[in-house]
Amino acid sequence: MEPRKLTRNQTLVLETLTHAEAPLSAYTILDKLRDHGFRAPLQVYRALEKLTEFGIVHRLESLNAFVACTHPHDHGPEKAVIAFAICEDCGQVSEISDPEIEDRLAVLATKQQFKTDKTTIEMRGHCGNCTA
Amino acid sequence: MEPRKLTRNQTLVLETLTHAEAPLSAYTILDKLRDHGFRAPLQVYRALEKLTEFGIVHRLESLNAFVACTHPHDHGPEKAVIAFAICEDCGQVSEISDPEIEDRLAVLATKQQFKTDKTTIEMRGHCGNCTA
DNA sequence: ATTCTCAATGTTATGTTATTACATCAATTG
DNA sequence: CAATTGATGTAATAACATAACATTGAGAAT
After folding, report:
1. Which terminus has fewer CB within 10 Å in chain B: N or C?
2. Distance in angstroms, CA of A103 to C1' of C16?
């Protein structure tokens, strides 16, 4: 599932997310792209689905919203576990990839013979800037 | 926010979740409680909100669904971080409370001066029974 | 070049999840 | 009793997501 050449819709959605300063909902993206010919939610959801598969967009489950990946990290199928720190004030999201967390979760899962497909870690709180 | 005496609606919702074998959506709960006089989503959502505050019900963000807490653990305001292992096949959810994970996330947050209010950890996959 | 195929797209409708707004009721308390 | 507070009931609507079906477009096979 490599980030091959993106389609027009995928490109537009990705750019929208890239330029955003906070996570966007699918419908917010839709509104921002009406001028570019978007008319229905599916156009957004389909693009998001692919971009998420490619690993260049992440879905934030606790927010029902999406962000462009800011991780220097691999976009490959390796799919490292990523933790998100989401600021309630400014909306800024930082991605954290930490082997210790990943290993520990793997141990805990194995301990109960659980086979993990996908892991979600989201911290909601307040970032340094907004706390200051 | 102690689990003081529950109201009628809260009791009904909690019992519904307790008897369920998998997470339930708010609307599923509503349907199960129609015979008991429930008629509107808010009756469910309001009860869920309180039960969640009390710590005796958890919301699974990646599922938009709810489970009764099965954790022997404290229902107090201490609010330990809980990781959920959610089986895609049978729906069974197990709660994992692990100080190592908690500590590590705390370290990572602190490192970037992030003040965490609430942490979500959800592993989606397949439990031992369903893999066998 | 023509046909085949498959992924992406467009469009409408609908399904699912969650909240706003407002009225009422019941228990407590000053 | 009046006043406050928390729970409830109800209707309407907002927000998030998918199903179903028709069409288009780009590349591969012939």
Report:
1. C
2. 36
Judged against a pLDDT cut of 90, whether residue B105 lies above it is answered with: yes
Tokens for B115, please give them. Answer: 């003040």
> Would residue B118 count as lying in a domain?
yes
- B20-44 burial, b at 16+ Cβ within 10 Å, e below that, comes to beebbebebbbebbeeeebeeeebb
Mean pLDDT of B22-41: 97
Residue B2 lies in a domain: no
Nearest CA in chain B to A101: B101
Quote the number of domains for chain B: 1
Tell me what pLDDT residue B73 has.
Answer: 59
pLDDT recorded at residue A5 = 86
State the smallest CA–CA distance between residue B115 and chain A in angstroms.
Answer: 5
CATH assignment at residue B127: 3.30.1490.190
Positions in chain D where some atom is under 7 Å from a protein CB: 7-12, 15-20
For A125, the domain range is 8-131
Subunit contact B123:A112, Cβ cutoff 8 A: no
CB under 7 Å from any atom of strand D: which residues?
A 25-28, 40-42, 45, 64-65; B 7-10, 37-43, 46-47, 50
B88 within some domain = yes
Contacts of B100 (CB under 8 A, 6+ apart): A104
Q: Does residue A3 form part of some domain?
A: no
Closest nucleotide C1' to the C-alpha of B64: C17
Residues of chain A with pLDDT under 50: 1
Residue pair B79/B1 in contact (Cβ under 8 Å)? The answer is: no
What string of DSSP letters covers A29-43? Answer: HHHHTGGGT--SHHH
